[in-house]
């Protein structure tokens, strides 16, 4: 899939499934994504979690997938999504879990292209909906999200066990 993005990009960005050879570039984006969510230094994810996450993208028994945004041979964004069943629908749901674009391409349409890539994958899989969460302080991202989807009105609670 190729999506036209902002005019300052030298070429179109291609959105495609991650491949094993992407690991080194994916890892850099993954680490930046985690750092932007407070998971760095002493709070960094254990390396085993990162390796397990990576391996799940290539395990046919796992419902976890990854797309990357590529520009001129460099990965500039990633998104991870998971298909799961629900008690309120027959078709599976798609949870867009992670979305990150490098600072160099932010506000140039790459995030929207990645989300559209997930929408396309969800349609092909016959899912009934795609949903995601964001932090209430993520106002810049919410400006994009408000254009692409509706707010559900639900508030998330969690208990770390």
Automatic annotation (TrEMBL):
Signal peptide: none annotated. Keywords: Acyltransferase, Transferase. The keyword Zinc-finger does not apply. It holds the Pfam family Acetyltransf_1. GO terms for molecular function: N-acetyltransferase activity. SUPFAM superfamilies: Acyl-CoA N-acyltransferases (Nat). InterPro entries: Acyl_CoA_acyltransferase, Diverse_Substrate_AcTransf, GNAT_dom. Residues 13-161 form the N-acetyltransferase domain. The keyword Nuclease does not apply. Coiled coil: none annotated. PANTHER family: ACETYLTRANSFERASE, DIAMINE N-ACETYLTRANSFERASE. This is Histone acetyltransferase HPA2-related acetyltransferase. It comes from Sinorhizobium sojae CCBAU 05684.
């Amino acid at each position: 899939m190729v999506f036209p993005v902002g005019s300052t990009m030298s070429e179109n960005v291609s959105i495609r499934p991650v491949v094993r050879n992407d690991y080194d570039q994916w890892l850099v984006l993954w680490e930046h994504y985690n750092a932007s969510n407070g998971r760095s230094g002493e709070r960094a994810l254990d390396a085993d979690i990162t390796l397990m996450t990576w391996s799940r993208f290539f395990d046919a028994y796992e419902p976890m997938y990854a797309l990357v945004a590529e520009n001129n041979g460099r990965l500039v964004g990633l998104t991870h999504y998971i298909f799961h069943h629900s008690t309120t629908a027959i078709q599976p749901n798609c949870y867009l879990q992670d979305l990150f674009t490098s600072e160099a391409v932010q506000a140039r349409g790459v995030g929207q292209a990645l989300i559209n890539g997930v929408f396309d994958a969800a349609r092909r899989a016959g899912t009934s909906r795609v949903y995601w969460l964001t932090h209430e302080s993520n106002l810049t991202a919410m400006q994009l999200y408000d254009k692409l989807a509706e707010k559900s009105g639900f508030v998330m609670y969690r208990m770390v066990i």
